[in-house]
């Protein structure tokens, strides 16, 4: 997802072309018609932990005393959720590190409502089992597939820097995960930088070898976002949402087998894949801090230097409350 692609899709959503798609999305209000809430938290989500929170119904129970309800709409990617936020279709969603930066560069009024703990083991460089590539230094001159403008592109930049290489020392092949997997299988790329659960699936079904993960290189957090307007008027609702998400994290950390089973059904993946995925996951979600915003600022600065975004960003005030 580049800045230009984000801007184009945003314009389409802002027009009437996207309205039918949003209307057809499976939004479900949590409260009965007889008790219409005075406020509604419209959540956009991808298949994953928020799907499990939705099934639990605990967020709805927590918000009922506040006169607030919940609606849910499922999306297939984080950038689409951000575009939905920008046109006023949702109030809250989940996303990785990079997409919010493109959204902010395109003028989206988003704030970071919450962030996960660092999860560096959930993204990695993989190579075919019999590859001659044994170290990061061996990547010089090689064809590396990855999703342009994603968190793994930032990972690649920092990985090369740490190992004495420059970004231009490798051949970047920009491919979304499904296309990158196909290229990896055919030998059209020498290495693939990817995140879980795609990473675990490649290890389990393609016998891929993990060269290096992001440990000690980048944090790889997940983020929960809202709009500035919604956050200003509903900070109490957002705090409860983050608390309930953290409760799911806590359950998963203590009941990993049950979490892997439930997540495998949500994602439609074999249980062995989610077992591997969760074996290296880290758990915990909280409100953003100044230090976390500084991490995002570093990514934004890197993307500006790579000319992936057209202007420098200042993320100091991208929190729903004043951090002081």
What does this 3D model show about the protein?
The chain has 324 residues and is α/β, with parallel strands linked by helices. It folds into two domains: 3-119 and 221-263 and 282-305, Periplasmic binding protein-like II (D-Maltodextrin-Binding Protein, domain 2), CATH 3.40.190; 120-213, D-Maltodextrin-Binding Protein, domain 2 (3-Layer(aba) Sandwich). 44% of the residues lie in helices and 17% in strands. It is built from 14 helices and eleven strands. It has helices at 3-14, 19-24, 49-56, 58-63, 78-86, 98-105, 151-162, 177-186, 198-205, 228-233, 235-254, 256-267, 271-279, 290-305, and strands at 39-45, 68-74, 92-95, 110-116, 123-127, 143-146, 171-174, 191-195, 209-213, 223-227, 285-287. The strands form three sheets. A five-stranded mixed beta sheet has the order 7-6-8-5-9, with helices on both faces. It has a four-stranded antiparallel beta sheet with strand order 3-10-4-11, with helices on both faces. Strands 1-2 form a two-stranded parallel ribbon. It starts with a helix and ends in a 19-residue tail after the last helix. Residues 10-34 have low confidence and may be disordered.
Q: Tell me the CATH architecture of the largest domain.
A: 3-Layer(aba) Sandwich
Overall mean pLDDT: 88
SSE string, helix = H, strand = E?
HHEHHEHEHEEEHEHEHEEHHHHEH
Major sheet:
5 strands, mixed
Q: Beta-strand level of the residues, as a percent range?
A: 15-25%
**Could you give the order of strands across the largest sheet?**
7-6-8-5-9
Number of domains: 2
- Based on CA atoms alone, the radius of gyration comes out at 20 Å
- CATH homologous superfamily identity of the largest domain: Periplasmic binding protein-like II
Briefly, what CATH class of the largest domain? Alpha Beta
Helix content: 40-55%
- State the total count of DSSP E strands: 11
- The shape is globular
Structural class: alpha/beta
Oligomer type? single chain
Low-confidence stretches: 10-34
Query: Between the first and last Cα atoms, what is the distance in angstroms?
Result: 33 Å
Number of helices: 14
Looking at CATH, which topology of the largest domain would you report? Answer: D-Maltodextrin-Binding Protein, domain 2
